Amino acid sequence: MHHSQAAEHATIATSTGIDNRKMLIWVFLGSECMFFGSLIATYLVYYGQSLPGTPTPGEILDIPTTSVSTFVLLMSSLMMVLAYSSVSRGNVRNFRIWILCTALLGATFLGFQVFEFTEFAREGLTPKTNLFGTTFFTLTGFHGAHVTVGVIWLVSLFGYSFKGDLTKDGGLSVDMAALYWHFVDIVWIVIFTVIYLIGVTNAPALIE
Amino acid sequence: MASIAGVFRRPTHPAGVWGWITTVDHKKIGALYGVTAFFFFMVGGLEALVMRIQLARAGQDVVSPEVFSQLFTMHALTMIFLGVMPLSAAFFNLIVPLMIGARDVAFPRLNAFSYWLFLFGAIVLQSGWLLGGSPNTGWFAYAPLTSNSFSPGNGMEFYIVGLGVLGISSVAAALNFIVTIINMRAPGMTLMRMPVFIWMTLITSFLLITAFPVITVGLIELYFDRTFGMNFFNAAAGGDVVLWQHLFWFFGHPEVYILILPAMGIVSEVLPTFSRKPLFGYEVVVLSGIIIGFMGWAVWSHHMFTVGLGPIANSVFALTTMFIAIPTGVKIFNWIATMWGGSISFKTPLLFSVGFIAMFIIGGLSGVMHSIAPSDAQQQDTYFVVAHIHYVLFGGSLFAIFSGIYYWFPKATGRMLDDRIGQVNFWLTMIGFNLAFFPMHFLGLDGMPRRQYTYSSDMGWDIWNFVSTIGGLILGVAVLVFLFNFFLSLRKGEIAGNDPWDGRTLEWSISSPPPEYNFATIPTVHGRDAFWEEKYGHGGKVPAGVSPEEGHQGGIHMPSPSYLPLIASLGLSIAAYGLIYSFAVSVVGAVIALAAIYGWALEPAAEPAGRES
Amino acid sequence: MESSSHTRKAAHPTPLTYVKIAANLGAITAFEVGIFYVEAIEDALIPIFIVLSAVKFVLVAMFYMHLKFDERLFSWLFGGGLLLATFVILSLMALFGALL
Fold this sequence. Notes:
heterotrimer, A: 208 residues, mainly alpha, Four Helix Bundle (Hemerythrin (Met), subunit A), elongated, B: 613 residues, Cytochrome C Oxidase, Chain A, Helix Hairpins, 2 domains
């Protein structure tokens, strides 16, 4: 038998010894790279191409605020990995604490995003305003949608921990959610760098 | 075999229609894919015939220009997304687990989900015919023709939402087959012992999961432009309409290989069987497939030679495109060399495969002509291109698919398709196909533009158009002959037995049709062409005994049927329809889908059998 | 990857390692935001940001997503998608003249 847990879950041991579901999530994340890659490509192709006189990244984006929300999302990844670590050691009590923290930080990040979006709209940038607005809201919006799905997933796992056994298969169900969550986090690392840090740094030069 | 089946107590499954609706059995899902896709293949064929009748003579008025535009758009979408792709998926489903020695795919319920989502996506895409007009912009839907000002009405929404739903279905199926192929192979089936069809399925699946997200983003952007007034393709706000073309063809060119690689896989199975020789240069054929898959990413702008990307971009893409001819040519030589010196039996499957090689060479040659950018500038948007794509997609993909149907029908149903009717079917297809599409080369070089609903008799195009229409009608007859053969053989066909063709791969080692669990004992693979090895390789030792791993598995425990994949896909499709008409409907659909997904996650893949140790 | 012999069953890191990684991630982010306001190095900022974010990316992928400890196949599956996505971004930028 290749994998001690495989027999419990599937009737057949796998050729590689890897659980089917774990491979599924990794292949899925590979596919997701292409999704976000295309959105980021669109943003970059249109960077600095908005009509003159319309809001620019330099005028709109607020680095301090977004730094805080970035930090929040990074720390949620820490909570997530601690939740997985707990459940894989069979400690469901600690798992519940950490997973709630993760979901809470995720929700906080979403709160920041809602605040950011309304603030930008107040300052005159909506998805219809110019190319910057169109590409910015679409890219960060889809990232936010992924975070939302993640929060729902995490809360569901929290609820399930009272009903079923999450520690079987070495916590695989949690592992899958965790991988998804970290992926959403690293996408944000890219977005924060490309749109915010580099985008604002570079803005004056391009707008001239 | 049947006696072995009796030993194992297995969960009883619902019978009749309900059994099909709740099935998670890859063979039944494959059959559903096949029948649904063939239905849409005929719909697409009818759309083509109406166009051919309209074009049979100059200055006709059978359909209006508006309807003609919808016809050529929907013909392409139907044939690509609802015909050839799901017909390939039907083979993936039917054959992949059998060939790798597995009892099912890795995720049986996800598989059912993919099928139902395909069906609903097809309905969304086709519903434009009844709901006020189908998309009419050509299948590639170039901006700004797709903007609200040039495409009012809901036609484009059916395109966006339909392709979006079909994309999710395809990606879900591809994820499933990647995991299945990497993870569910029988002991001993190393990667380089996998049948070529499995390799091509794997490469196609990787193309699917990487190509579809790109078009999904394009569709989202188009939808946002149309629905929320965003600026992605709005030139007035500085948007660049060429971005759509890049996103589309970044998906569109891998898509071409998604259509042809499974066909190449089928041919690579049929030729060795009917030549009674192993595939010539297996490693090279596999490697060529991988190279074609990779190169599929580096040639997309050859669809855009006339856009004006500049001499450097055009030269780069011309070179990469020419390069693709090398692995493709290598494959063709290998197929021919496989037949060389073999003891060939010209049964219908082989006829279609040989037809594939011949037609695909013609299509490939005109493809190389397109790769020369200045030459392509002359051919762009003429019937020459129409001739090319039909030689590779019909002469290529569909010939191979018919070959596959004749080849594996006995395995799927237990009965042979009639070979004499099959021969008639083949020759009608071959003659009709060449009559219909070869003249388009002449028409194209003579300057006849595509997508025009009519032409003037002064142009001198009448005769070849008329010939082409006759060819199209003959093709229609060929499909009817096939249908006749199908239904006749389903009832009265010769009983096939396990191994009617003296096959080489594992699916022929089990009964026809296979039992629900496929393999009573999982075979152990000792070499490439596993079943042939068993039969002739080691002194006639027929199927391997119980492998050590089997010992403690107890009874064969198959996944249980479930209605949740259907509900989940129905919810998603309702949500998708809501995107066209009302977001409130979307919310309802999303709630249904979410509930189904919860149920799905909570129900075990297989109900406990109750007596497993 | 044909048999279980490749299964890399190395022990996952301890919670302490995870916390240290998080501290690094936080520190790098703080550093990024800090140098963002330093006008003297404005020209060098873009490469610095790219390198630093790549470091953060790799830290999360290697440790939190366990790529360093798990099956190498996962790195191939994910890295393949990542490379192709990068190719999409760079080639589109080049075609639109947005690169350099």
